[in-house]
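User: My instructor asked us to take a sequence, write out its structure as tokens, and then describe one feature of it. I'm not sure where to start. Here is the sequence I was given:
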Amino acid sequence: MVIHAGAGVVSGRLAAHPRAHFEASLGRILDAGFDILDRGGSSLDAVTVAVRMLEDDPLFNAGRGSGLTRDGTAELDASIMDGRNQKAGAVACVTRVRNPVELARHVMEKTLHVMLVGTGAEQFALEQGMELVPNDYFHTDDRRAELEAVRRGGIAAHAGAPHGTVGAVALDSQGHIAAATSTGGTTNKLPGRVGDSPIIGAGNYAKDGVCGVSATGYGEYFIRAVAAHRIAALVELRGQSLEEAAREVIHETIGSLGGSGGVIAIDAAGRMVLEFNTEGMFRGARDSSGRREVAITR
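Assistant: Let's start with the prediction itself. The structure tokens for your sequence are:
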């Protein structure tokens, strides 16, 4: 199992909160997801639980603690994909759904659709008995301060703060791969802006026998590059290793366009890749051989 909680210039976040706080949270969430796999649970359940916990942690930009729009509101996006049958679900621009990843899974499992947005998505959430919360539930002092700094020109919206996305990819004992991604989006974004996180093939992708990918970064570039699917295609069609494919997409494809960010990925053999072209990426990896690591910088 691999998880991420954003990539970018991480030094500002580490100055605001002790590194140990981030590492402890990443480790706790990584272990919770992996424990599901260790008990014989599904990759789909593992990534759902991990991303839900990341959404609930105000340290990270998804769910509570989401980045705020130009108007000071939170608009959240999420997606999930099941590698067994390549079914997928996604939601975008939701403002009251406490855990968008859970709503994305409902879209995948209980409708014929892939994506629901805005008020339609929230009406569907109510029909599913999900908890809706006031928009200010997602606001934190850190994100308010970050928005003000961007407005004043103190930091660049895309370059100055970690790219705000969380995600998880898992391979279970049955060989099934699942991936999930969730975000509050770019600080100071225009209302209605949607990045790569809820777009299947851009910020999230999974296919059994190939790989699963969750991305974090400057979303517009990941959309233009169809980054998550491109990595899978390089593995499946060109025969590249997952490491080679991720490096090519992040450093060459995304990099050449002027974008930045990273990906986490797992292939069918359980090889885990955590690749980024930024100062750092909040990340963790664990497998059944005993490997367990949490890291932020290089």
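For the description part of your assignment, you could build on this observation: The two ends are 19 Å apart (CA to CA). Try explaining in your own words what that tells you about the chain.
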